[in-house]
Specification:
Blueprint (H helix, E strand, L loop, with lengths): L18 H13 L7 E4 H7 L10 E7 L21 H13 L2 E7 L13 E3 L7 E3 L1 H17 L10 H21 L2 H22 L10 E2 L1 E4 L2 E8 L10 E4 L7 H4 L4 E4 L7 H9 L3 E3 L4 H4 L5 E5 L4 E4 L1
Parallel strand pairs: 2-3, 8-9, 9-10, 10-11
Antiparallel strand pairs: 1-2, 4-5, 6-13, 7-11, 8-12, 12-13
Helix pairs in contact: 1-3, 4-6, 5-6
Length: about 325
């Protein structure tokens, strides 16, 4: 099924996901022996490709890939996939990012309540030319319900691995989709939004009941890799030498791994225990705290801070 695209004035066509980008991604994965039937585009990128004018952040394209075909072994609990460091495939991924100005964010299937077997029912072929599967709008909404219920209902898991801002983004995301679905007469997606919104609102409410245990702490977040360091703040810049710095950024993306690996510490506004910043920090044993509200507005380049990732606190010295 090919969905007719209706570009909103919110977007500059130049910044959209071009069909050539999808073809480049397909060829990249074919080079890794991953068939087009074993992955699909998901998240905000899928919505944009389906003609839904949602906020498309940071030129990031979420991609779900069958874990069984991913060429590099990864622990079952790891929810982000990337090629081994220093390999030809890692170089190819960086070349794709540089050429297309978009970062594929690979996640495994099955994925926290989302089954690999559903990939055909939940997606459509974007175009005969590309041959790339894209998540259907209704399924993009439904997947958020599956993820929340997985963390609510599965023993040993909790919504605490995320942060409240994630679910506030989801709430806005679904409200935008519902409006567009009503406008274009997409009844299946509209009905799905009505089912899923209360579940997302419940997730937001979960964080609103959490108590602020110590208001005397200057900044507080979620510790994702232990350790305590003192250092100088540096904000993320492509190509900047981050050696020995405590890097502050809104959130981490896969292409930043190599550069962030040199940091003394990592602090992010968004993210949780399973986010990219957490994966980077644990892999390279860098003390890190995520989910520190508005930290990019409260710290400045060159500030001296104490990052205590044993307790999840940041103090400005």
């Amino acid at each position: 099924m090919h969905i007719e695209k209706n570009w909103s004035s919110l977007f500059d066509l130049v910044s959209m996901i071009l069909e050539s980008t999808l073809i480049d991604l397909k060829n990249l994965l074919l080079g890794w022996n991953i068939s087009p039937d074993d992955w699909y585009v998901t998240g905000e990128a899928a919505m944009v490709l389906s003609g839904y004018p949602v906020t498309f952040r940071d030129q990031q394209m979420d991609v779900l890939v069958c874990r069984s075909v991913w060429p590099w072994a990864r622990p079952e609990e790891q929810v982000s996939l990337f090629p081994d460091a220093g390999t030809l495939e890692e170089k190819q991924l960086h070349e794709f990012i540089e050429k297309n100005n978009i970062t594929p964010d690979f996640h495994p299937l099955p994925h926290v309540g989302i089954e690999a077997a559903d990939r055909f029912d939940h997606s459509f072929i974007f175009s005969p030319t590309s041959g790339v599967r894209v998540l259907s709008p209704w399924a993009g909404v439904w997947h958020r319900k599956l993820i929340i219920e997985f963390y609510e209902q599965t023993p040993g898991f909790s919504l605490k691995v995320f942060d409240k801002n994630k679910f506030l983004r989801w709430q806005k995301f679904i409200e935008e989709i519902q409006v567009q679905a009503e406008t274009i007469g997409d009844e299946k997606t509209r009905a799905t939004c009505l089912q899923v919104l209360p579940v997302v609102e419940r997730a937001v409410a979960f964080f609103e009941t959490e108590k602020d245990e110590d208001s005397s702490i200057l900044f507080k977040g979620t510790a994702v890799c232990p350790g305590s360091v003192v250092g100088t703040v540096a904000f993320w810049q492509d190509g900047l030498d981050l050696s020995g710095k405590i890097v502050v950024l809104k959130h981490a993306l896969p292409y930043q791994f190599t550069q962030l690996a040199k940091a003394r510490g990592i602090i992010t506004e968004a993210g949780g225990l399973l986010g990219h910043a957490a994966v980077i920090a644990r892999e390279y044993k860098i003390p890190a705290i995520v989910g520190v509200a508005k930290i990019t507005e409260k710290l400045f380049e060159g500030d001296e801070v104490e990052l205590d990732a044993n307790n999840g606190t940041v103090r400005k010295l």
